């Protein structure tokens, strides 16, 4: 998925014979987006999940950690535990709601981190070229060759988390790994975009007028090269949420007492558990899939909006 | 330590498997083929960790193989666990300190040489010598002269001056004597442990032979190893075997599984003939006893000697000593043992009411008293009277042994009943847990398990709670307790010794160094091809009784 995202064409910026002439590319994209039902579906889903992450109390009053072992494996029912009980007798519904926080924060933070890191690297490489470009490109390739999951497993095994660490420390550790291994993707994209924008007349004009590199980058190159990065970053968000779930599933991502969809899915996926209590597996999986789907749909919609060929 | 290692390897050895997930079990051919020429069965096994020498194997994977390739002075009856003479003709003593051992002349090693008294004495001397670095050397501790074979406080930097224990003397080819430093009334019972097996003359002839026998051991047991590699170990009938426990099958294939679920599925499909001792029945199959329904008449349960308990870390000052007593009791009282057994272990375990397993003679229920009975109100009250607990209380377990479910349940109960923060904390594997324990790095509480080395009440007390004992992970030390152990060791076997050990157990009840949880059962399963399945309290399949179904 990540690969596919990298390959898609870079939205040209300067010479767009756009139908919506007279508007900036950004506002044109927004008009385009508003018309897409897919965008609204994903946006509504995302709003709901973000609400869950920010204020889970709005959705449930049950303590997700409260266990009543006597109720273990209770089946879902409309006048009882809505999603059933897990093996420890905890409410699957409450745990699914509370699990959103870990997944979303990993997804969002990892996206922000990779985007910022990747953008800086890509900008520097593309703008300065020459040996700076060569060195940054090679460094990027080194990280590019390490598979995301393999690197994550190695790192998290090497630096285990202490139990007293708050959720945010655990999250940041995973974010760090994902960012470390994920930035070259964005950097390549950014470099490509910068190279495309750099020869433009307005950049040359600014240069001729004696503008400093900082000014050229921030007021001319960056705004025009940002669009493809935002598109790919949105799609990657879903990928990172899935990566966190995978790491937690393997028992090395977020750990008890943190609640995450990945670790709950892991706990529920023994053959015996699937037979005895399929609801334990179903609900966290469903929410995880919906979240990933929502972000990928959003990314798709944004890409379409920014790509004039698809307009 | 040794017993412990085995112990938990038995329970936890499940282990490494889960992490690696490599389903390399399963082999190709269907086992237990019904060819008449040679009867062959296959058994789910696990990866052997140390050389297959009696003095070095202290975990269940290698131990099971060795158990069948060696014969010892005594053998534990698979039904009653009582020691019966095997190679020994007689073991006599007048004072519980000088033992006279006469052996039967008929036994032969699998290389055809006879078993002589010197084979025992040489083997024990060799394994006790610290320069040979044998893991089981601890079992020879009671023998006089053992200390002369240890140098530098166990570090063994310099070679010992002698290579023989003065307490062992060969009288003739069929007789030798054992002298112990103190009175040890249950010594004859201990002699059935694998560390006390004899080694053949060829073992001592050259280093090359020793190396070879680490892989292909030569013993006097009913079987011999014919091939040994990472995927399976094949045993064949020992043609020279002279004992009374002749097997009905010609060949036994110990197939190594990395994942107990794979072994279980193979038994289900009749591709494997037995699982449950080395590869346990997977935890999730126990839910609602699904495994029993699926196997329909091909499963069994046997009370095992495995005793599960929680140890309070000696480095956690909030928990230890007299000042932490009320807190320890409060924690123990807030654990609902029967409920966890029902919900996690499908009622296959039984709650513990003391520190000694019911499988040994001298077991007396109730040493733990009300501390082992679920009583949230009393627990809360004791907790209020105690100094409380600051910070997060951890319950550390090894993630590779199917302990997650019950450890999380215990953590929730203690947390909810006492109102403190309790977290079940996994360490990746059993080895890491043991290493951290040895380095005294684990604070809070941790899980422990104990499978007996020999059927004696002493084996549940001395090695775990004696001052400075090898497996004393609680760091427990009480002069009265140590004294009582000495009194018990020199008392006559039977009722007098048992009563003395029970007194020692009652001291544990007052000091409460560990919280007893439950006595475990071995769950096992077999294929349609075999019959006469018998599993003993040591969690061992009896290979002398299993046989192919007559078609």
TrEMBL record, chain A:
One of its GO terms (biological process) is transmembrane transport. It is found in: Cell membrane. It comes from the Bacteria. Residues 1-20 are annotated as: Disordered. The chain crosses the membrane at residues 38-59, 108-132, 139-159, 165-183, 221-243, 281-302. GO terms for cellular component: plasma membrane. Coiled coil: none annotated. Its main location: membrane. CDD domains: TM_PBP2. Keywords: Cell membrane, Membrane, Transmembrane, Transmembrane helix, Transport. Pfam families: BPD_transp_1, OppC_N. InterPro entries: BP-dependent_transpt_permease, MetI-like, MetI-like_sf, OppC_N. Belongs to the binding-protein-dependent transport system permease family. This is ABC transporter permease. It comes from Microlunatus endophyticus.
Automatic annotation (TrEMBL), chain B:
SUPFAM superfamilies: Periplasmic binding protein-like II (SSF53850). One of its GO terms (biological process) is peptide transport. Keywords: Signal. It holds the Pfam family SBP_bac_5. Coiled coil: none annotated. One of its GO terms (cellular component) is periplasmic space. CDD domains: PBP2_NikA_DppA_OppA_like (cd00995). Residues 1-22 form the signal peptide. The keyword Signal applies. Residues 83-471 form the Solute-binding protein family domain. InterPro entries: Peptide/Ni-bd, SBP_5, SBP_5_dom. The keyword Signal applies. It comes from the Bacteria. GO terms for molecular function: peptide transmembrane transporter activity. This is Peptide ABC transporter substrate-binding protein. It comes from Microlunatus endophyticus. The lineage of its organism: Bacteria, Bacillati, Actinomycetota, Actinomycetes, Propionibacteriales.
């Amino acid at each position: 998925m990540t690969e596919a995202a990298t390959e898609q064409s870079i939205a040209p910026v300067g010479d767009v014979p756009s139908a919506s002439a007279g508007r900036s590319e950004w506002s044109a994209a927004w008009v385009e987006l508003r018309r897409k039902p897919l965008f609204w579906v994903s946006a509504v889903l995302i709003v709901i999940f973000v609400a869950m992450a920010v204020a889970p109390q709005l959705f449930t009053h049950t303590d997700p950690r409260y266990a009543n072992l006597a109720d273990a494996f209770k089946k879902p029912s409309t006048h009882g535990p809505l999603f059933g009980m897990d093996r420890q007798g905890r409410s699957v519904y409450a745990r699914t709601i509370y699990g959103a926080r870990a997944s979303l924060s990993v997804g969002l933070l990892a996206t922000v981190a990779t985007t910022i890191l990747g953008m800086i690297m890509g900008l520097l490489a593309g703008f300065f070229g020459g040996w700076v470009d060569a060195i940054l490109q090679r460094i990027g390739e080194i990280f590019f060759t390490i598979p995301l999951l393999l690197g994550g497993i190695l790192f998290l095994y090497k630096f285990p988390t202490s139990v007293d660490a708050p959720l945010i420390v655990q999250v940041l550790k995973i974010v760090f790994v994902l960012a470390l291994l994920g930035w070259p993707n964005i950097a390549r994209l950014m470099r490509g975009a910068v190279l495309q924008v750099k020869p433009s007349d307005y950049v040359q004009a600014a240069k001729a007028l004696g503008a400093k590199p900082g000014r050229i980058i921030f007021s001319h190159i960056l705004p025009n090269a940002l669009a493809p990065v935002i598109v790919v970053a949105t799609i990657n968000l879903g990928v990172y949420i899935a990566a966190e779930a995978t790491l937690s599933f393997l028992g090395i991502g977020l750990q008890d007492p943190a609640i995450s969809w990945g670790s709950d899915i892991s706990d529920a996926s023994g053959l015996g558990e699937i037979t005895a209590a399929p609801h334990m597996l179903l609900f966290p999986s469903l929410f995880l899939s919906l979240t990933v789907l929502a972000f990928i749909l959003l990314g798709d919609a944004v890409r379409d909006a920014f790509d004039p060929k698809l307009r | 330590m040794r017993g412990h290692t085995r112990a938990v390897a038995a329970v936890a050895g499940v282990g490494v498997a889960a992490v690696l997930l490599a389903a390399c079990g399963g082999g190709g051919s269907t086992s237990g083929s019904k060819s008449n020429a040679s009867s062959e069965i296959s058994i789910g096994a696990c990866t052997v960790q140390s050389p297959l020498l009696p003095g070095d194997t202290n975990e269940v994977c290698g131990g099971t193989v060795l158990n069948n390739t060696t014969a010892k002075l005594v053998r534990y009856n698979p039904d009653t666990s009582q020691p019966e003479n095997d190679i020994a003709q007689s073991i006599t003593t007048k004072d519980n300190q000088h033992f006279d051992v006469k052996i039967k002349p008929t036994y032969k090693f699998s290389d055809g040489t006879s078993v002589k008294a010197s084979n025992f004495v040489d083997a024990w001397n060799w394994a006790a010598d610290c320069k040979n670095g044998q893991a089981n050397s601890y079992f020879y501790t009671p023998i006089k002269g053992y200390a002369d074979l240890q140098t530098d406080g166990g570090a063994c930097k310099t070679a010992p001056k002698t290579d023989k224990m003065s307490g062992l003397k060969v009288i003739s080819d069929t007789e030798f004597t054992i002298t112990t430093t103190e009175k040890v009334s249950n010594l004859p019972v201990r002699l059935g442990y694998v560390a006390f097996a004899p080694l053949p003359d060829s073992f001592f002839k050259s280093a090359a032979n020793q190396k070879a026998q680490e892989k292909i051991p030569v013993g006097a047991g009913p079987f011999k190893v014919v091939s040994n590699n990472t995927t399976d170990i094949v045993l064949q009938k020992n043609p020279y075997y002279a004992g009374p426990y002749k097997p009905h099958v010609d060949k036994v294939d110990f197939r190594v599984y990395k994942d107990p679920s794979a072994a279980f599925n193979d038994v289900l499909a009749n591709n494997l003939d037995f699982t449950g001792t080395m590869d346990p029945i997977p935890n999730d199959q126990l839910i609602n006893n699904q495994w029993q329904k699926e196997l329909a008449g091909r499963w069994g349960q046997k009370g095992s000697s495995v005793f599960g308990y929680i140890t309070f870390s000696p480095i956690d000052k909030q928990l230890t000593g007299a000042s932490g007593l009320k807190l320890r009791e409060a924690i123990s009282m807030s654990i609902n043992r029967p409920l966890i057994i029902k919900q996690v272990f499908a009622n296959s375990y039984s709650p513990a009411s003391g520190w000694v397993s019911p499988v040994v003679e001298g077991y007396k229920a109730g040493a733990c008293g009300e501390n082992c009975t679920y009583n949230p109100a009393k627990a809360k009250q004791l907790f209020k009277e105690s100094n409380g607990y600051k910070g997060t209380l951890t319950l550390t377990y090894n993630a590779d042994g199917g302990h997650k479910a019950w450890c999380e349940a215990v953590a929730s109960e203690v947390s909810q009943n006492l109102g403190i923060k309790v977290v079940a904390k996994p360490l990746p594997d059993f080895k890491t847990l043991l290493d951290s324990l040895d380095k005294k790095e684990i604070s809070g509480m941790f899980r422990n398990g104990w499978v007996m080395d020999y059927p004696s009440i002493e084996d549940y007390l001395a090695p775990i709670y004696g001052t400075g004992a090898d497996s004393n992970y609680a760091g427990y030390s009480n002069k009265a307790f140590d004294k009582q152990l000495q009194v018990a060791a020199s008392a006559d076997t039977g009722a007098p010794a048992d009563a003395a050990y029970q007194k020692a157990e009652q001291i544990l009840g007052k000091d409460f160094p560990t919280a007893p949880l439950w006595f475990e059962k071995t769950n096992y399963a077999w294929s349609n091809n075999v019959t006469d399945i018998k599993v003993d309290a040591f969690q061992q399949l009896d290979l002398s009784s299993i046989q192919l179904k007559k078609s």
